[in-house]
Prior knowledge:
Number of helices: 9
Structural class: alpha/beta
Order of helices and strands: EHEEEHEEHEEEEEHHEEEHHEEEHH
CATH topology of the largest domain: FAD/NAD(P)-binding domain
Number of domains: 2
Helix content: 25-40%
Strand order of the largest sheet: 7-2-1-11-17-16
Oligomer: single chain
CATH architecture of the largest domain: 3-Layer(bba) Sandwich
Number of strands: 17
Amino acid sequence: MQDPPAIAIIGAGIAGLTCAHELAAAGMAPVVFEKGRGLGGRVATRRTTEGAQFDHGAQFITTRDDDFRRVMAAMADAGEAVSWFSRDDEPHWVGYPHMSRIGHALGAQRNIVTGCRVRSVTPTDDGWTLALDHENVGFDQVVMTAPAPQAMELLGQDHPLASVLARVRYAPCHTLMVTSEDRAAARPGPWRPEQGPFNLIAREDSKPGRPPLACWVAHTTPEWSETYLETDTHQVREQLAAAFCEATGVPPDRIAYTDVHRWRYARVTQALGQACLQDDTGTLWIAGDGCLGPRVEAAWQSGRAVARAIRASI
């Protein structure tokens, strides 16, 4: 009986974790490499030493695909997700008790190496070599789920897939995180201001299971972030904090904490329109929301598509 291939997955976002989950269910043992400390990519949560927490990436998850709808329902049954609110009878899911719980649920009991940056991906006679921070490791197959510009950097501009990946477009976003000493201020649910730099403002403590602290997350518009993409973080934080107070009515002297996170590849604005990519060797795969579009569900579908293609090829 042939041994299962050694498979590396680059990136522990939703696509990478889904791919790992599906391959493991088929008896394989992929290794996931993640340069950061957390799981879930932009389905993320930031915590402070004072006990505040912010879902500073995706604010909620919606479902259109029946299979993904069942995945979220199963997470809800397991106490890992809950509906924050419904619109047109469609649940808007959040992780419970924080958004990053979604990634941890998908990555449970998987071989995930966090805090490990992949420096390059090089073809060999019998597979691929990943150059890590302190060693080189060989694999039979590689699945890349990083944003397209980062995947291109790893592969090199001469790789045949580079010109395809170059078609993917992203919009950036700055996320302001705020705590206030005034819990009564501002409305509880998410809303979209008609003016100013923010595209969406959400009251974090309105979500089920969150700490009883007045916490907000405010996402900027793509246009604002494009303008201030390389601006000093301190200056960005000051501008956005002032705009937040104006938008919400929270007095500046009641602000207890602010921080900013920049998402350079926050939202896909032009996707490839296909679930995944495969190179000519049949052993290198590209997955992620850049393939199908800017939704958590799209990343899940892409990761599943790669896993199923690998399983079918063995």
